[in-house]
Amino acid sequence: MQVLMAGVDIVVIVLLSIAGMLFLTLQSGLAATVVRRVVAVPIGWLSSIAVGFVMSAAMGPSVQ
User: Fold this and answer.
1) Which of 10, 32, 48, 63 has fewest C-beta within 10 Å?
2) How far is CA 17 from CA 8, 13, 34, 47, 59, in A?
3) 47, 35 Cβ separation under 8 angstroms
């Protein structure tokens, strides 16, 4: 029974990690879109998304 519960715990952790990464990707994409519109500078999507990831990662601990 404990082995089954440990397996369920691992599955829950993996699913929450995947959900967190999807949310971070969505949030970074949204930030990149907003920055591209506000700044109106023709910068690439790759650098915009990278900046969105850094901004989201930096804001996460400060919000908590």
Assistant:
1) 63
2) 14, 6, 26, 24, 18
3) no
How far apart CA 45 and CA 43 sit, in angstroms, is 7
Give CA–CA dist 56/48, Å, rounded: 12
pTM: 0.58
Token pair recorded at residue 10? 């691992």
Question: Which two structure tokens, joined as six digits, stand for 61?
Answer: 């601990």
Cβ proximity of 56 and 28 under 8 Å: yes
Question: Would you write out the chain's pLDDT as a tens digit for each of its 64 residues?
Answer: 566 677 788 888 899 989 988 887 787 778 777 777 777 766 677 777 777 777 777 776 766 5
